[in-house]
Design a protein that fits this description.
The chain is α+β, with helices and mostly antiparallel strands. The protein folds into 3 domains: 189 residues, FAD/NAD(P)-binding domain (3-Layer(bba) Sandwich); 150 residues, Protoporphyrinogen oxidase, mitochondrial, domain 2 (Polyamine Oxidase, Chain A, domain 2), CATH 3.90.660; 106 residues, Orthogonal Bundle (protoporphyrinogen ix oxidase, domain 3). It is 36% helix and 21% strand. It contains 17 helices and 22 strands. Bound molecules: flavin-adenine dinucleotide. Flavin-adenine dinucleotide binds next to helix 1, strand 17, strand 21 and helix 16.
């Protein structure tokens, strides 16, 4: 008679997107027969972290993230895996137009601008958004050669300035980064925030040449696919489709976090349980015969204690640092040194007639020099279908970030008054909102300052001395939803492998 393998417990601390992805990966392994149980410990009263959707009279309001970049595949793949494939929808890219506030006027970003890289001549020549010096710099950039020696890391501002000049930083790079990261282009690392551009420079020198080349290659691949007609017929491989820029779910992103949570063993999910300490159980690690036999002790506020054979720490890095102070002081310091920005979203719903008063497009970004408190405003009803009832409009304004953390201290009424005043002054938009929602997200958006990649290497080195402990979240290798799903899944897979209880790939293989 063979003994059944001992069931190992893996605890996930933090129930945001990263923690849910980790716990879900463990649940899938358990469902496939791996001797493992997942335990999820979350401080707050809900799962999903900053992902929260509310529906009000047919308006779908995203309190935190509203979509994910389609070119990063994990989020759409996870939605399909969870049975939400029919709810996936792309942004209305045919109507895509983003404005920048420039000297008090909304000017469209020039067509053909691929994030920061101009790829079309005429719109670049004619845009009033950039001075002649930037246009000349952009033309000369085409002839840049790769750097002769490794330049190391630098800020996004200095990188963009070297390639396209100061106005590109002020009028385009900085507002884009404040709108996406709540960050400051003079502080953020180009290597960690824009790794593709950093690589392009190393390989080609010119970002414009590199981008044009990759566009040509993509078009050629699409053409080759079209020419092969039914092409993939018989190969089982679908031809590549042109992806929308953003994707989301019809009912909001909370659909995904709810589906992830639904797969978990509900008897092993503990909410309202802020973890206060993470230690080895007495006797370990020195007392443990081997590292796999030592256990972690997880102490929550109120005295609840859990034990586990491995731990995925999926809380913000500054929180993770605090929890690890007794296990590894240096690791704790490294984690606590990752800065976070705080931000705020203000969603306003409007009745019929409001749409007609808005410029066509997805919304606008506001450079620092315009001295406004809003960082960006999205015309949600235009960016995605199914977000507002037929004919009605919804605006989502983004405030705070590294530029203006103080705004989070204002009362909701004061914030809404500021937003409405700025909407009136910028667009002459005076419609009366049907409702508003204000959401504050304190220290929730990790910032990757210059030197971030070196810090991550140091963190990884320290973790090698703490086998059984894994990190997931937006502080390490990308802040988007897809990045968080990836880090959560990878951390859980490593924990399964460490305990020798099968990986999720094996689990998947067993299911089918
Ligand atoms: C306003 C806003 C808009 C965004 N927009 C987008 C977007 O459009 N597209 C996109 O891709 N990304 C966007 N992001 C980024 C993305 O949403 C986040 O990076 C991601 O959701 C973070 O997930 P997470 O699980 O790592 O962290 P979180 O969601 O912060 O979850 C961490 C969890 O840990 C819990 N926790 C903390 N401390 C403890 C403790 N001691 N014990 C137990 N639990 C603890 C918290 O309660 C929380 O539930 C946005 C972020 C914000 C804030």
């Amino acid at each position: 008679m063979t003994n059944a393998p001992k069931t190992r417990r893996i605890a996930v601390i933090g129930g945001g997107t990263s923690g849910l992805a980790a716990a879900y990966t463990l649940a899938r392994a358990r469902q496939a027969g791996a001797p493992v149980e997942e335990l999820l410990v979350e401080a707050g009263p809900w799962l999903g972290g900053v992902v929260r959707t509310e529906t009000v009279d047919g308006f779908v309001i995203e309190a935190g993230p509203d979509s994910f970049l389609a070119e990063k595949p994990q989020a759409a793949a996870m939605a399909r895996e969870l049975g939400l494939g029919d709810d996936l929808m792309g942004s209305n890219d045919h109507a895509r137009r983003t404005y920048i506030l420039h000297r008090g006027r909304l000017l469209p970003l020039p067509d053909g601008l691929m994030f920061l890289v101009p790829t079309r001549l005429w719109p670049m020549v004619t845009t009033p958004l950039l001075p002649l010096s930037t246009k000349l710099a952009a033309a000369l950039e085409l002839f840049s050669s790769p750097p002769k020696s490794d330049r190391g890391d630098e800020s996004v501002a200095s990188f963009v300035q070297r390639h396209y000049g100061e106005a590109m930083v002020e009028n385009i790079a900085d507002p884009l980064l404040s709108g996406v990261y709540g960050g400051d282009s003079a502080a953020l690392s180009v290597r960690s925030v824009l790794p593709r551009f950093w690589e392009m420079e190393r390989k080609y020198g010119s970002l414009t040449r590199a981008t044009l080349k990759s566009m040509r290659q993509r078009r050629a691949a699409e053409q080759a696919n079209n020419n092969s007609g039914a092409n993939s017929a018989g190969t089982g491989i679908a031809p590549p489709r042109k992806l929308p820029l953003f994707m989301t779910l019809k009912g909001g992103l909370q659909q995904m976090t709810e589906r992830l949570a639904a797969q978990l063993d509900k008897y092993h999910v503990f909410m309202r349980s802020p973890v206060q300490a993470l230690e080895f159980s007495p006797g370990g690690p020195a007392g443990a015969a081997d590292s796999c036999s030592r256990r972690f002790l997880i102490t929550c506020a109120g005295g609840k204690v859990f034990d586990a054979d491995a731990v995925v720490l999926a809380v913000p890095a500054n929180q993770a640092g605090g929890l690890l102070s007794s296990l590894d002081h240096r690791l704790s310091e490294l984690l606590e040194g990752i800065p976070y920005s705080s931000s705020m979203t203000v969603s306003l719903g409007f009745g019929e007639n409001a749409r007609a008063k808005l410029p066509a497009g997805f919304g606008f970004l506001i450079p620092r020099k315009e001295q406004r408190r809003m960082l960006a405003c999205t015309f949600v009803h235009a960016k995605f279908d199914h977000r507002a009832p037929e004919g009605k409009a919804m605006l989502r304004c983004f405030l705070g970030g590294a530029r203006d953390p103080q705004v989070l201290a204002l009362h909701d009424d004061e914030v809404v008054a500021i937003v409405r005043k700025e909407l009136r002054e910028i667009m002459n938009f005076t419609a009366e909102p049907l409702f508003y929602r204000v959401h504050r997200w304190y220290a929730s958006m990790a910032q990757y300052p210059v030197g971030h990649s070196g810090r991550i290497t140091a963190i990884e080195q320290r973790l090698q001395d703490l086998p059984g402990l894994y990190l997931a979240g937006n502080a390490y290798s990308g802040i988007g939803i897809s990045d968080c799903l990836r880090t959560g899944k990878t951390a859980a897979e490593k924990a399964l492998e460490y305990l020798g209880v099968g990986s999720s790939q094996k689990a998947e293989g067993n299911r089918h």
